[in-house]
Amino acid sequence: MSQPGPSPLSAGDKNISVDQARAAIAAALRPISAQETVAIGQALGRVLAVDVISPIDVPAHDNSAMDGYAFASADLLSDAVTTLRPVGTLYAGAPYAGKVGAGECLRIMTGAVMPAKLDTVVPLELCRTEGTPEAATVHIDPGVMRAGENRRRRGEDLTAGRPAVRAGRVLKPADMGLVASLGLAEVQVLRRLRVALFSTGNELRSLGQPLDPGSVYDSNRYSLLGAVQRLGMEVVDLGLVADDPAALQATLQRAVTEADVVLTSGGVSMGDADYTREVLARMGEVAFWKVAMRPGRPFAFGPLGPVGRGPEQAPVWLFALPGNPVAALVTFYAFARDALLQLAGAEATPLPVLQARCTTAIRKRPGRTEFQRAVLEPAATGGWQVRLTGSQGAGILRSMSEANALVVLRHEQGSVAEGEMVDVWLFDGLV
Ligand code: AMP
Ligand code: MG
Q1: Is the Cβ atom of 267 under 6 angstroms away from ligand 1?
Q2: Interatomic CA distance for residues 15 and 25, integer angstroms
Q3: Strand, coil or helix: 147
């Protein structure tokens, strides 16, 4: 069952790269396993717990892909006009009971069941008809049709007994339709991951409180609330916590009883870290990492206790993000997003990495990963370009708000010249 993986603590207090941090997190986590049944109409964004096995062939019968005339390909002439005589009409949903002889055909609508001996459909626009509707003839010029065309085969979409959707799929609209096409009204999904969220800092004020000198509104809780909601997870909002060991400990104790994951912001930078460390050391095995990235440091991760609460119980994982509003979101995307999806049992769906032409030069030194807020947009000359948004200070949330993407300058990469291709993480609307 869910046991903590190899301890990520070995990386504690060391300088590690973004990739090393991501790998250590991924290695430590095990997905939740508790399942529930939901109606297919309620399944959007839920994680499928077991493969959906198709109970039927879809389509259940050979049927027509076009409006036209169904006929037997044995009647098709390759060197002369084929002439057929319609003897009936086939509508979708109403199988044909009559007989069709040599040289005969049936007017057929899209989706109508193909009678056993007919294997080809000539679309209306590829044939000529003559005479009254009751006594018409249908003419097909040579070379226009091939045997078997425009027939959808039984089971060509899905075969009975085979998996139609695999466990781990985060169900999307087409998956809902696919499951419905099998006649299944419900699916087994994993329960939603529960993510406890709180902010730390004596200077923070809740919305609605007056902003006294030196204070700032707690914005991180809302950025992170949105980010977690977008992943389809449940948020346990634990509010604001003062820079005080007893308050921190009480809130963490509540969090571990109510959630699978604790996501905090603030309180892990140099000054604060001492008392945070002391509290966390009592509660689990949290590592404070110096990740070589910008923005982002500092960052802490690890299991909160009681660790190993029985063989079937998983630890509660803490992600302590930096307080700076942009750093909080960037570290969320860099470390928490994929980890939360992994814990939720979702198949790996990392942020798409695109390549785009950078409209500005960027100075960078090798040895750390840098994330720049940017807008990815179509270039006038074709393809995609990426333009940085405003000031890149770690506290400037506006430039994150205006961005739809992050330019990712890799660990070993140096400065970027104007017009150079760069890696881009597209996050807006996707995460
Ligand atoms: P810290 O990581 O606690 O040292 O915070 C770094 C900076 O981020 C400080 O300027 C804090 O005021 C600011 N900050 C911390 N938490 C939040 C928050 N929840 N909302 C907005 N700003 C914050
Ligand atoms: Mg603070």
Answers
A1: yes
A2: 15
A3: coil
Strands 35-39 and 421-426, bridge-based pairing: unpaired
Percentage of the residues of the chain whose pLDDT score is greater than 70: 94
For tokens 């999806």, name the residue.
Answer: 341
Residue 303 is classified by DSSP as: E
Are 209 and 169 in contact, with CB atoms under 8 Å apart?
A: no
Nearest-CA residue for atom 7 of ligand 1: 324
Contacts of residue 127, Cβ cutoff 8 Å, sequence gap at least 6:
68, 69, 138, 139, 140, 144
Token pair 């056993």 is at which residue?
Answer: 116
402 CA to middle of ligand 2, Å? 25
The 10s digit of each residue's pLDDT in 106-120 is 999 999 999 989 999
Whole-angstrom distance, CA of residue 110 vs CA of residue 64: 5
CA of 285 to the centre of ligand 1 (A): 24
C-alpha–C-alpha distance, residues 17 and 23, integer Å: 10
Q: What is the pTM of this model?
A: 0.88
Q: What is the pLDDT of residues 383-417, one digit of tens each?
A: 999 999 988 887 889 999 999 999 999 999 999 99
Q: What is the DSSP letter of 431?
A: -
Q: Residue 181 — φ and ψ, nearest 5°?
A: -65, -15
Helix (H), strand (E) at residue 199: strand 194-200
What is the phi/psi pair of residue 236, to 5°? -105, 105
Contacts with 156 (C-beta within 8 Å, 6 or more apart), sequence order: 59
The pair of three-digit structure tokens given for residue 101, joined into one six-digit string? 């002889």
Query: How far from 216 is each of 219, 330, 395, CA to CA, in Å?
Result: 8, 20, 12
